[in-house]
Design goal:
This protein has 367 residues and is of the alpha/beta class. Strand 3 (148-153), helix 7 (166-170) and strand 4 form a beta-alpha-beta unit. Helix content is 53%, strand content 7%. The protein has three domains: 3-200, 3-Layer(aba) Sandwich (Rossmann fold); 206-239; 244-365, Zinc Finger, Delta Prime, domain 3 (Up-down Bundle), CATH 1.20.272.
Length: 367
């Protein structure tokens, strides 16, 4: 994976390229960016650049032995650590799945990764055994690369076990680098944060998401624009929006809200039975779209502005709903949607969840 293969992030690429050109690299750096921004892809490309045997003007050649191994995620001196499932699990147990994940979906969310491991209701974590394995790996000499690199995705999952790595991060062996990729700074141990050089990764712009979707999926720009509109700079979410035909969720969502307003029990039961057949990801995307609609509606209620990220027919519905919903009601419904996403991710019964959600939304609308 090379920088030129990654969508947008011109500033971050320039910063990382400049670091690679320098004689003194920070021994630990933290790439901090929101989900779907490409922070993981940037870290993987940066590791390849550092190991490249023929890099020129800050670019990895892509053809040397080191580049080919790095591109296949098999370079012996680029080690990966990431959340796994199981009390004593280590990342090396899941390398085959991880390489497939990186090759196919480096912008995907941690939930998608864990579901690929059949996590179901289990929580991901980076274990004590994984920390001990990292210490052992990095105590060895490099096999063939210039550096020994430990690329850790989501150090938020370390918890207190991260204390085991503090001494190694602060005083690593020669030519040893830590590249951490995180989404939530507040969940990382302060003692780890203080030992890393922070590199902030911005959300992608709508234009960059559209360009990426058109290039990757060869879809019309207007369809890509609809997905980018809802994704908020998250390219992984935009990909799923296209795959699940999220452009149709607007009409379905508004129809559901009308049914909730009427409160006809028979209609709501029929609707929930239909929604239960969509599949988990489509159900999640439906609620994600609902959160997007409510955010825009909240902006309208708070400011009176009609310049919203909504399509014309959605804008008309939002204008009508702004007469019924105030700030408190919008907040209450948003919390219900977030709870719904949480329950879907943990394999709750969609029929029960959506019926309960419909009843609660009806009560809020009729207050």
């Amino acid at each position: 994976m090379k920088f030129e293969d990654i969508i947008g992030q011109v500033r971050a690429k320039a910063d990382l390229t400049q670091l690679a050109k320098g004689d003194r690299l920070p021994h630990a750096m933290l790439l901090l960016g929101p989900a779907g921004s490409g922070a993981l892809a940037l870290a993987v490309a940066f590791a390849q650049l550092l190991q490249c045997e023929q890099k020129d003007a800050g670019f990895a050649c892509g053809t040397c032995s080191a580049c080919k191994k790095a591109a296949a995620f098999t370079h012996p001196d680029i080690h990966f650590s990431f959340p796994t499932i199981g009390a004593n699990a280590v990342s090396t147990d899941f390398l085959k799945d991880w390489r497939t994940f990186l090759a196919e979906s480096p912008y995907a969310s941690v939930n998608e990764w864990l579901q690929q491991l059949n996590a179901e209701n289990k929580q991901g974590n980076i274990t004590k055994e994984e920390c001990n394995s990292i210490i052992k790996k990095l105590s060895l000499k490099a096999f063939e690369g210039r550096y020994k690199i430990l690329l850790m995705w989501l150090p938020e999952y370390l918890g207190k076990e991260g204390n085991r790595l503090l001494k190694l991060i602060e005083e690593p062996p020669d030519q040893t680098l830590f590249i951490l990729v995180a989404e939530n700074q507040e969940l990382i141990l302060p003692t780890i944060l203080s030992r890393c050089q922070l590199i902030r990764i911005d959300p992608l712009s709508d234009e960059e998401v559209v360009q990426g979707l058109v290039a990757k999926l060869s879809i019309p720009a207007d369809r890509a624009g609809d997905a980018a509109f809802l994704a908020g700079g998250d390219f992984g979410a935009a990909l799923k929006a296209v795959e699940s035909q999220e452009s149709d969720h607007g009409e379905v969502f508004l129809d559901w809200l009308r049914k909730c307003w009427k409160g006809n029990a028979v209609e709501l039961v029929k609707w929930t039975e239909s929604a239960a057949q969509w599949g988990r990801e489509n159900q999640k995307q439906f609620l994600v779209y609902g959160l997007h609609f409510l955010r825009e509606l909240l902006l309208m209620v708070a400011s009176g502005s009609n310049k919203l990220r909504l399509r014309p027919e959605e804008l008309i519905s939002a204008q009508n709903m702004s007469k019924v919903l105030d700030f408190e009601k919008i907040q209450q419904i948003s919390e219900l949607f977030n709870d719904g996403i949480f329950h879907i991710e943990r394999n709750a019964s969609p029929k029960i969840m959506f019926l309960d959600l419909s009843i609660q939304v009806n009560r809020i609308l009729k207050k």
